Amino acid sequence: MGPDVTNGYTASRPVERLLSEWLLTRQVVSIPAYSVSKQVGILVIPGILFTRSRFVLVSCGYETDSKRNAVNSLQTPFVLMALVCTQYAGAADERVDFKTQVAPILAEHCLRCHSAGNRKGEISLATAEDLRANEYIGAGNSDASYLVQLLTSQDGDPPEMPKDATALPDDQVALIRRWISEGAEWPNDVVVKEKSRADASWWSLQPLQTAATSQAPATIDDFIRAKLAERDLSLNPRADRRTLIRRATYDLTGLPPSPEEVEAFVTDTDPNAYRILVDHLLASPHYGERWGRHWLDVVRFGQSIGYERNDIINNLWPFRDYVIQSINEDKPFDLLIREHIAGDVFGKDDPDVAVSSAFLVAGPFDDVGNQDPVQAAQIRANTLDEMIRATSEAFLGITIGCARCHDHKFDPITQEDYYALYATFSGIRHGSVDLATPAAHAQRSAELEPLNERKDAIEKTLADLDAHVLQRAREQLSTYEAQWTRETVDRTGTEDRFSPVTAKFVRLVCEARDDTPSASSGFRIDEFEVWSVGGDSKNVALDRNGGTASGQARKIEDFPGAYGPQHAIDGKTGARFIATGHDLTIELAEATAIDRVVFSSARGETTPDQRKFHFVAEYRIEVSTDGQTWQVVASGRDRRPIAQPAFVNYRLLQLETTDEDSREKQRLKKELASVKREITKVPALPSVWIGRRVAADAKGPFHVFVGGNPQKKGNAVVSASLRVMARDSNWTYRLADDASESLRRLALADWLVHPDNPITPRVLANRLWHYHFGTGIVDTPSDFGYMGGRPSHPELLDFLAVKLKKSGWRIKQMHRMIMMSDAYQQSSEFREDAARVDGDSRLLWRFPPRRLSAEEIRDTMLLAAGKLDTQQGGPGFRLYQFMQDNVGTYVPLDRHGMNTYRRAVYHQNARASVVDLMTEFDQPDCTFSAPERTETTTPLQALTMLNHSFTLDMATALAERLKREAGDDVVEQVNLACRICYSRSTTRDEMAACRELISQHGLAAMCRVFLNTSEIIYVR
Amino acid sequence: MNLLTDLARRRFLGNTHTGLGGVGLMRLLSGTASAEQTPWQAGQGQTHHPAKAKRVLQIFCPGAASHLDLWEYKPSLEKYHGKPLPGEEDFLSFQGKNGNLMKSPWPFVQSGESGKPITSMLPHMAQHADDIAFIHSMQSKTNTHGPGCIFVNTGHATEGFPSAGAWLSYALGSENENLPTYVAISDIRGEPPNGKANWSNGFLPARHQAIMMSDQKPIRNLARPGSISAAEDAASRKLLAQLNGRFADANSSETDLQARVSAYELAGRMQLSAPEVSDLSRESAAAHRLYGTKDENPLKAAYARNCLLVRRLLERDVRYVNLYCSSRASGVDGLLNWDAHKTLKPDYERHCPIFDQPTAALLTDLKQTGLLEDTLVLWTTEFGRMPTHQAGTAGRDHNPDGFTCWMMGAGVKGGVSYGATDEFGRRAELNPTTVWDYYASVLHLLGFDHEKLTWYHNGLDRRLTDVHGEVIKAILA
Predict the structure, then answer these.
(1) Which of A88, B4, B176, B432 is deepest in the core (most CB within 10 A)?
(2) Is A612 within 8 Å of B343 when comparing Cβ atoms?
C-alpha cells in the first residue's frame, strides 16, 4: 500500500475528529491506543489501527499553518492530514525477511538520526557495518542485543530509542527480535534508506493539466470565483481609479504615478483607459527595473563575495543590466533561463548573451586560500553547493541542496541527483573574464602585437646592457669585495656609527628591500634609535624624549596609525612601521649632536626570516638641521651585500655603471615607458564577473560524497537529469562521463525548459502571481516540495503555466492577463464576514494591500522630491564606504550625495552590509535567494526615517518643489504635497494641521512628516 | 519591538477571524504579553520550560584565541618542546607546513580553589576560575576565520543564517522596549571576520538583527539632527502621529498600521533611554578604575569602556549582547586580533592585557550586582591553534579540531573543566563538543528546547543547532 495523502483540509475541527472520520471511511474498527506528542507545528498521532482484515500502522500529522512559521500566530490551524499506511504482517512460521520486514522499520524510525549522512552516536543503520562493529547485535540472541535493549523499556524507564519519539509498537520490536534470533541476516546489497515524504506522485511533479472539457474555466476570474463560491464568498467591487492607477503603477514600475497621470486617468472616459494604462506601464523602462529587481532577489544577486574577505565586485553590474534589459524587451523567459545556465556556451561570441551566465557566480563564496587540502576540498564543495541550490530553487522550486549529505528527507531527490548537478557545475570558478566579440578580441591583439614586440626588444637591450656591465664588474670583483668591510644588515638590529654631527632631523632612506632589490618601499621598522654624543648618551629619537616620526605608512581606514611611523620610536617592539614610501624621518626635540643609529624590524624575534619582517638591504642615513638640505652620514654600501646573486648584482651594477652606460640606460628606460604608455592606451576589453571555466576542475570522474564529506567518495555519478522525473523518456538526459563541461551545462539548460517539464513554468507563473498579489498560489515560491506550501488554486496555477508556455514564455502577456482580471482590479476593502472565513484573503475576496519594498520607499522619496536620477544601467552607486585591509568593511554613509540619487536597483548591494533605510525596510541580505520579502515594523525604521540626513535632504527638496510648482500659497502647497505623496486631495483636518505646522516651522518640516507617514508607503 | 507585526506572515489576520485577533492586537500594542496560553508563542516572552538565564553576554575574541596559551594547560608541550608532534610529523594546515611542538611562552598559574591552571598573562581573569565552566573539547568544522566566526555565532559555517542573539530576539521578544533587544558591540579596531554577518538576522525578520552600538559609536540615527530644533521635532511628530493615527483608524483591519504608530512612539522612548545608558559619566570613579577605562593603552581603555557599557545594558534588560575584543585578520597578522600565526609572544602580550582587566572587572561587577544570577556569560572564539609552531615562525596556525570556549553565570556550574584535547592539545579527545552542543545548552538555560525553536526557510525548518546538538548536562548547575 502506497502513501495515502489527503490534503487540503481547512478546518477548525479538532484533529481527532478528522482522524475518526477518516478512519470510518476506511472501515477501521478500533483504535486501541494512540498518543499525542506536540512539537512545534506538528501533531503526531501514531498508533496501531486494526482493520477487519489486517492491522496497519498509521501516523497522522497536521500543521497549523501552511507557512509553518506562523505556528504561533493567532490563526485557526490549517489542518493537513497526511496518513501513511505501512502494511506489514507475516505468518509466524516463516523466516523474517530483512529487506521487506525489518528494513522498513529501521527506515521509518531510525534512519532520521542514524544514516551515513547523520551518524548520531556514531551509528548508521543504513548498513550493518556500524551495528556489527559496535556489537549492537548478538546474532541469535535477541535479549542480549543492545539494539533490543535500546528499543524496549528497561527498569521501568521508557525505551531509549527512538529518541524523543514514540516507542516502536510491540509487534515491530517482536519482529526485530525474531530477526536477531534467526541470525540477524542483513544481505550485503541492502542499504536501508529513509524514504522521502513525497515521492514521484507529488503534485508539483505532475504534468500540467490542460483543461480538457469545454466547461473548464477559461479565465483567471472563473477559477477565483469558483473557489470563492465554494466558501460562499465573492470578489469585492472594482477599486476606484485613483486606487487602481497607484496600485498598477507601483506594481509594474515600483514608482508612484505623477499627480498629472492620476488626474488624467481618473477623468478619462475611455472604457479602455485601464488597458491602455497597463500597456503604457509595461512599455516603461522602469518596468524592467522593478521586475528585474524581483528576479535579482530570486537569483541572490550581490556585488561582494561574502565571507571573511567580502571583497567588493565591481564588474558584476552588466548582469544586472542584462536582467533589466531582457525583462524590458520581454525576452522569452525560457531563453533567459537557458542563458543563465549556458549563455556562454551557445552565445560564446556574443557578450550580450554570455553575460547571462554570471548567474552561476552571482552568489557568495569563500576565497581565503587554504593550504589544508581537506578544508580546501570542503570549501570548494560549499561553493558548488551554493550554485546547485541557487539553480534548483530559482528554476525548479526544489530544495535539492537538502540532498547534499543524504537523500532528501522530504522530496524525492537522491544524493545521486545532487552530485549529478555537482558534476554539471564542477568546471565553474568565481572570477572575471574578458567579454568581447571575436572581432574586438582580434582588433585588440592586432593593436597590441607591435607594441609588445617593441617592449620586448627594449627590455632585452636593457638586460643585455646590464649583463655587459656585470661582466665587466666581475673582472674586478675582488677589488670591490675588499670595500665591503662591514657585516650584512641584520633584521634584529643594525647599527651605524659616524662622526659626531649636529642634527634636528635624521632619516633612513631605503634604496632596496632585503627580500627583493627591485623594491624600495614596503620595508618595516619596529624601532629606530638615534643616540646622542657623550657619556650620558641617550636615544633622542624616542617619543618620550621628544622625538617625532614621519613617513608614508600602510593605512587602515578604520584603525588609524595601525602601521604608522610612531611605532618606530615608542621604545617597544612587536608592532612596526610599514613604509609605503622610501623613508622614515625622525625629528628630534632640538638640534642634538649625535653619532650613532640603531634600527631593526625583528628585534628580539626568534624567527626573523619571516615575510612580516621585510627590512632594508641597501640604505643610507641622512641628517639635516632644517629638514631641507640633507647630508649622508652613513650607508650600507660598505656592508657585505646579502649573499644572493640579485643583491650582489645590484651592488656591482651601482659600482660599475659608467656615465655612458647610465645615459644609454636612461634613454632606453624612457623609450620603454613610452611604449608602456601606448600599451595602456589600447582600450582594455570589458572584464566581467561571469566566472571562469576551468578544464582541470571539470574533469571527472565525480562521486557522491558520503555524508557530504568530500573525503568519502561513494558511487560514481555523471551529469544527468533528476531521476524522479524520468517517467517521460523524452525529457531525461544522462551524459557520458567524458562529456564536455559546456555540454553538461547545455544539457541542463535545455532540460530545465524542456516542453515536457511542468515544473519550471509552474514555478515561474507562481512567482508572477506572488509579486502581483503579495502571496503566491503556492506561498513558498522557491519550494514546491513537501515542506513548501500547497497551491490554493492548483488548477489556476496550471492554467497560468500553460498560458505562459503558449505565450512563448513572454511575461508581459501574463502581466496583462493577470492585471486585467477582476480579481486584480477589485478593491482592497475589508469585509468582516469574508475575513471570518478567509482571514488573509488567500482566496482573494479582496485585493491584498501591501507596504512598499525598501527600494520603492527610497525611490518614492527621491521622485516626490523631484530628485530621482533616472539614468539607467552602468556601474552602481554606493550608500556605504568600502574599506579594505585584507578584508572588506562596509560602513553606511551619513550623507548621501547627489550621485546616489538613482533608483535603488542600481545600488551596489554588498553582502553582510547594513545600509540604514534599505536594510531596515527588509531588503534581504543577498546571501540566499530571497523569493519573498519579509515586512517588519521597527523603531529603527522610525529613527532612520526621521533623522537620517537623506530624509532631511528629500524634505528640503520636496519643499522647494512645492514652492516651485504650487507657488507661495500654503493651501496649494499642501494640496500638491498630498497629490504627490498620496495621489489624492487634502482633507479639511489635514489642511488645518499642516498649515499650523508650516506656519511655525516651515514647509520642509511638513515635508519631513509626509515622508514619514504610513500612507506614502502603502498601496491598497 | 517584539510585538510589532511581521506583516508578511500576519498580514491582515483580521480581528475577528479567530476571535483572538483583538486580544492579539491589544497585546501587540501594549507590550504586555502574558504567558498563560499553553501553546508556546514566539516573541511573547514565553519559554518552553522555566529558564535559568534571562539574558546573555557573549564575549567573542576573534582571530582564534589560543586554547593552549590561555585556558588549557598542556605540560607535555613543555616536556616535548622542540620535538615533532607524534604521528603528525608532516601535516598541512591553513597556512601550510608546521614545525615542531612549541610550549606556551608564559607559565600557567593555579587559580582559585579549583586550582585551575590559567596563563599568567590573564591574572585578573584567573580570579574568576571558580565560577567558570570551561569546555576544552570544542570542535569546529572549518579552519577559516570568516566561516569559523559565523559558525560559532549562527551554528552554520555558510553565510545567511541568524545569529544566536537574533534567535533569542525571535524566541522571546524584547524585555525593555525602550532599548534594543539585541546589541552588538564591535571593537574599536573594527569588525570581526565576516563583519555584520556575525550578528545578522539572516532570514529572520529584520527586527531581530543586532543594533550596533559601542562607547565609540552610538546607535545610528538616534539623535535628532542638529538642524531641527526640539520644538520643530515635537510639533512634527505630533502631526505625524495624527496623520498616521488617522490612517490606521481608517484601515483598522491593517494591524501593521497601528504597529507603525507604536514604532514611532517606541523610537521616541529609545531616543531618551539609549543616551542615558551610554552615558558612562554616571559611573563612579571606582567603577572606572575597576574596569580600567582610563588606561594609558587606548585600545584597552576603549574596550574597558565597552565592558562598562555592557553592564549598563544588561542592567536594563537588553537580552543579548555580543561584545568583541579585537577585530579582523589584518593584512599584517597578529595586530588587530588573536590570529598569532607568526609571533605569538608579542601578539598576545598586546592582546591579553587589553582583554584581561576589563573583562574580569565586568564579571566582578555582574557578580556584585547580582546580575550574574540570571545572566549567562559566554566566552567564545572561532577555533583554536596548533600545538606546533608554524614552519619558520614563532606562531601557531589554525586548529579547528580542538579548542576552548567557556560559560558562567545563570545555571552554570563553576570551577568545572569539561572535556579535553589530547596530550598535546591537537584534537578534542575527551567528550568532543560541537558548537551545536554549546548552543543546545545555551538555549536550554534560556528555557528553550533547541530542536523546537525553528523557522521555515527555503525548504527546511531551520534551527540554531542545524540538525545536531546535545545539551551538555555536566556543566549545568
Answers:
(1) B4
(2) yes
